Automatic annotation (TrEMBL):
It comes from Desulfohalobium retbaense (strain ATCC 49708 / DSM 5692 / JCM 16813 / HR100). The chain crosses the membrane at residues 26-50, 62-88, 100-118. The keyword Transmembrane helix applies. The lineage of its organism: Bacteria, Pseudomonadati, Thermodesulfobacteriota, Desulfovibrionia, Desulfovibrionales. This is DUF116 domain-containing protein. InterPro entries: DUF116 (IPR002829). Residues 277-298 are annotated as: Disordered. Keywords: Membrane, Transmembrane, Transmembrane helix.
Length: 298
């Protein structure tokens, strides 16, 4: 992907890359361990029934062994390709076709392996999300604004707000009490879709209705990981929310990071010349709200 040489977003990009490095090592370790474990299981599947298979036909053990060998080869090749993609930040050995294997097969097994060695689910999911983002970015694709969907969780909305945004984000009065106002500014400037979902079922319905080519999703580790799995093969770039009040209550999101993602996926000719939220400014998601007594429920 050709990155926009935008100096005011450079430190955001450096922060994103720096946070990726640590999780990259964790992911590489987990995917390597998981691959070895799966290969060991496949070997056992050949060794254990070896004697019984020979009674069916003399060649049966070797036919079964060949099938197992192909499986081991595919697992080894996919793991190597994935690791090389992560290290070199570009598709290698057809690795861009392997994102689905990572999502559908490796993540569940990696979670089990990680838990067995004392890693938390959140840490494993965070590592997976970071690597998924890197794989999506490495494809280097840009899209028309109308094909980009920003999918937000309802917990970004101020918990005292009386307006329902799930089915119509236009109900937002843009008071500044939560990040939704800033996200609407991004939507208006970049011409992309913006929706708010209360859960996976509604999120899937939104995806079917809007038919995007790429999704920029904000959520916690659990919801992002499951959302990436549910929407495959549609590429999803995940932005973790911030939870100063605990999970699912008045969460926050960095509008600068969200805009950074937009500028990586929207076609260059459709990008506005000026950014909505320059990095030098305080995070607009936490700016001082305008007084508006009509927004909060009495």
């Amino acid at each position: 992907m050709q990155h926009n040489d935008d100096s005011s977003l450079s430190s955001i990009e450096q922060d994103i890359r720096a946070s990726f490095v640590a999780r990259k090592r964790l992911f590489i370790g987990l995917i390597t361990g998981t691959s070895l474990l799966v290969c060991l299981v496949l070997v056992l599947l050949w060794v254990v029934p070896y004697v019984g298979l020979s009674e069916l036909h003399p060649a049966a053990p070797w036919v079964w062994g060949a099938i197992i060998a192909v499986g081991i080869g595919l697992i080894g090749w996919s793991s190597l390709a994935m690791v090389l993609n992560i290290l070199f930040k570009r598709p290698i050995l057809f690795s861009k076709r392997l994102r689905g294997l990572t999502i559908k097969l490796f993540l569940p097994v990696m979670t089990l392996v990680g838990r067995a060695v004392g890693l938390s689910k959140e840490k494993i999911r965070s590592s997976f999300i970071k690597v998924n983002n890197e794989l999506v970015l490495s494809e280097g694709k840009r899209y028309a604004p109308e094909k980009v969907l920003m999918l937000m969780p309802h917990c970004l909305q101020n918990s005292m707000c009386k307006y329902r945004l799930t089915y119509n984000v236009e109900n937002c009065k843009r008071c500044g009490l939560c990040p939704i106002a800033g996200l609407l500014e991004l939507r208006d400037r970049y011409g992309v879709h913006l929706t708010v979902a209360t859960g996976g079922t509604i999120a899937r319905r939104i995806v079917v209705q809007t038919r995007p080519k790429v999704i920029i999703a904000v959520a916690c580790e659990r919801d992002l990981a499951s959302g990436i799995q549910d929407t495959y093969p549609l590429p999803v770039y995940g932005v973790l929310n911030e939870r100063p009040h605990g999970p699912c209550l008045d969460t926050q999101v960095s509008l600068q990071r969200t805009e950074w993602a937009l500028r990586r996926f929207v076609r260059s000719e459709a990008l506005p010349a000026e950014k909505v939220f320059p990095e030098a400014l305080p995070d607009p998601g936490r700016r001082k709200p305008k007084p508006d007594s009509s927004v909060a429920a009495g």
